[in-house]
Amino acid sequence: MNTYTIYDEFITLGKLLKDAAIIETGGAAKNFLANNDVLYNGSYENRRGKKLFDGDVLEFPDLGLKLNIVAATATEIAERQAELEEEARVKAIVKTLNANNKKAAGRQKTAANNKEQYFKRKTNKPKFPGAK
């Protein structure tokens, strides 16, 4: 029997299917539940919004898989929180780097455009009123 650790009070069946890599996207949950048998504590379940709590058991007879839902310990929750904070910090750094790169690329394009316009003006003859 495999165990799945939840870090909140509950997890929905659709989210668990996605997190456990049984399905690829959350939208595929409805189709998966319609085409496969899922036993929730021994009874059939086909609602993707079904809330699963600590101690619940999910069985997938078609896949030969049995999952036991377990609540995370305090240390596991602290470790996960640290990982989420690090992920948020890295995302913020990447966002600022991308913004700076975008600004620099914009300045380079503007400089190139100004150079082209300068040379165009230099090669073009001045136009006088009434001239064709």
How is this structure best described in words?
The longest helix is centred in the last third of the chain and has 50 residues, at 74-123. A five-stranded mixed beta sheet has the order 1-7-6-3-4, with no helix packed on it. By secondary structure, the chain is of the alpha+beta class. A hairpin with a 2-residue loop joins strand 3 (39-40) and strand 4 (43-44). The chain folds into two domains: 2-72, Roll (Structural Genomics Hypothetical 15.5 Kd Protein In mrcA-pckA Intergenic Region, Chain A); 73-123. The protein has three helices and seven strands. The model has no long low-confidence stretch (mean pLDDT 86). GO terms for molecular function: RNA binding. Residues 103-132 are annotated as: Disordered.
Task: Please state the structural category.
Answer: alpha+beta
The counted number of beta strands is: 7
Largest sheet, in brief, is: 5 strands, mixed
Total number of helical segments?
Answer: 3
- The CATH superfamily name of the largest domain is RNA-binding S4 domain
As a percent range, the share of strand residues is: 15-25%
What helical percentage do the residues reach?
40-55%
At the first level of CATH, the class of the largest domain is Alpha Beta
The gross shape turns out to be: elongated
C-alpha Rg (nearest Å): 29 Å
Spatial ordering of strands, largest sheet: 1-7-6-3-4
Overall CATH architecture of the largest domain = Roll
Which parts are unreliable, with pLDDT below 50 for 5 consecutive residues or more?
A: none
Question: Would you tell me which CATH topology of the largest domain applies?
Answer: Structural Genomics Hypothetical 15.5 Kd Protein In mrcA-pckA Intergenic Region, Chain A
Mean pLDDT: 86
Our count of domains comes out at 2
InterPro entries: RNA-bd_S4-rel_YaaA (IPR014330), S4_RNA-bd_sf (IPR036986)
Keywords: RNA-binding
Region (Disordered): 103-132
GO molecular function: RNA binding
